[in-house]
């Protein structure tokens, strides 16, 4: 209510300086301001709520239900354990809340100097206990030599490619780029997806390869080989794990007890969750365009009043 009152006062003060048309200008100003803030907070509420309901201010992973339940079990002894992730790669809500972190990811993806890149990455990852970091695998192994390495597996490269096409590639499509052009955080989101995918493509495939099922299969297999090779160079073990393996391999790796039988292994419908994310972000971007169009229309409608006011003076 305080925000609404403040917006109304500003609109009224602005309108009072244009006496021939106060009702037009005040109404337009008030509507535009209220509509913008309403659209922003309503559309972002699921993201903001998910961020601030977490007592530790933990960055949730792409599957919040699974990650939260797993964290509650494995990190029960310490409330300071947090999950870091690349805002560019597996979720959008973090780039909404911390655009400066998103820019750091873009800078790191484009930095060729290893020391400079790892200095940037320390700003992103220091203080966290876990992350998914496909774009910075080797760097993270060097930076955190005591960290455990889990290589999450799919049934095969084709299954991974289909999942990528159905989910992540949407965020680099021309529709999404145009729809979200007016939002800085969404533009950063697009840049991060493109930069991360391009880096992985250059590393494992070379430049200029078309996005085909065969390309995804090769990329998947080459990435898995890359992780194994980089870990072997450093004398590190890798747990190759699939969700169907359940708790046991992870508990053994981390030296944690198995959870009680009453706690099921966490799961949710990732495809449905991703559809909701796509819809929310696309609708938000289109709402920004709608507000811009309304503003232009109101400005055009006000031009005759400005001319009349100038003639009267």
UniProtKB/TrEMBL annotation:
A Pfam family per the record: Sulfotransfer_4
Keywords noted in UniProt: Membrane, Transmembrane, Transmembrane helix
Organism this protein belongs to: Xylaria bambusicola
Record Gene3D superfamilies: P-loop containing nucleotide triphosphate hydrolases
Protein name, entry field: Uncharacterized protein
Source superkingdom: Eukaryota
Membrane spanning residue stretches: 24-43, 281-303
InterPro entries linked to this entry: P-loop_NTPase, Sulfotransfer_4
